[in-house]
Amino acid sequence: MDDKELFKRAMAQATQVIAKVAPADFKLPTPDTEWNVRRLIKHMLYELSWTADIVHGATMAEVGDKYDGNLIGESLPAAWQAAANAAEQAIDRCDLNSIAHLSYADRTVAEYLKEAASDQLIHSWDLGVAIGQKVKFDPDIAQLIYDDTLPGAPTMSATGLFAPVLKVAENAPLQTKLLALYGRDSGWQPV
């Protein structure tokens, strides 16, 4: 599976969960302790909205505050689908070897798509458990993201962007091990 397909399939998993969110869910807590469901969705939609610009080589300064504000609007499903369609069309036409100008460094578009895929996948689980929907990762996607994340996992929490890696049994299911790399307890329940 190439990086374009990886991103699209991770985004599809997120799209399935987004479709199940009701406005009454917006205030529910999530495994991201600083975010409720609304703030988590806002983050996911914000990141997804940037995708088309990033894969086409735009810099942070060029995009500016284009995606600040209320991206959810009147209809979360419509806002999400519009961002997903724009991302998918841009990815179909992008060069994986071109440069993606990220907030912390320049990377290849392929590297960016792997990072963005992991973000969509992990947050789809966060959102699912927050609203009471079981999320079972596509095993092919989970394996690719796990293999890509594992080497850098010990330094991820040092960035301040990720919770510390959790220890799990070596024979734990792949999804449990992947979630643990991102500081998620697969048994998380809302308080």
What's the CATH topology label?
A: Four Helix Bundle (Hemerythrin (Met), subunit A)
Tell me the total number of β-strands.
2
Q: Strand-residue fraction?
A: under 5%
Biggest sheet overview = 2 strands, antiparallel
Indicate the mean pLDDT.
94
Low-confidence blocks of residues: none
The rounded distance between the terminal residues' Cα atoms is: 38 Å
Widest beta sheet: strand line-up? 1-2
Please state the second-level CATH architecture. Up-down Bundle
- Structural class, from secondary structure content? mainly alpha
Shape: globular
N-to-C series of helices and strands: HHHHEEHHHH
The total number of structural domains is 1
* CATH superfamily placement: dinb family like domain
Q: Which CATH class? A: Mainly Alpha
**Nearest-angstrom radius of gyration?**
16 Å
Q: How many H/I helices?
A: 8
**Which oligomerization state do the chains in this entry correspond to?**
single chain
In percent, how helical is the residue content?
40-55%
Account of the 3D structure:
The chain starts with a helix and ends in a 10-residue tail after the last helix. Strands 1-2 form a two-stranded antiparallel sheet. It has a single domain (3-154), classed as Four Helix Bundle (Hemerythrin (Met), subunit A) (Up-down Bundle), CATH 1.20.120. With 191 residues, the protein is mainly alpha-helical. The chain has helices spanning 3-18, 37-55, 60-63, 76-93, 109-130, 139-149, 153-156, 174-181, and strands at 99-101, 106-108. Strand 1 (99-101) and strand 2 (106-108) form a beta hairpin.
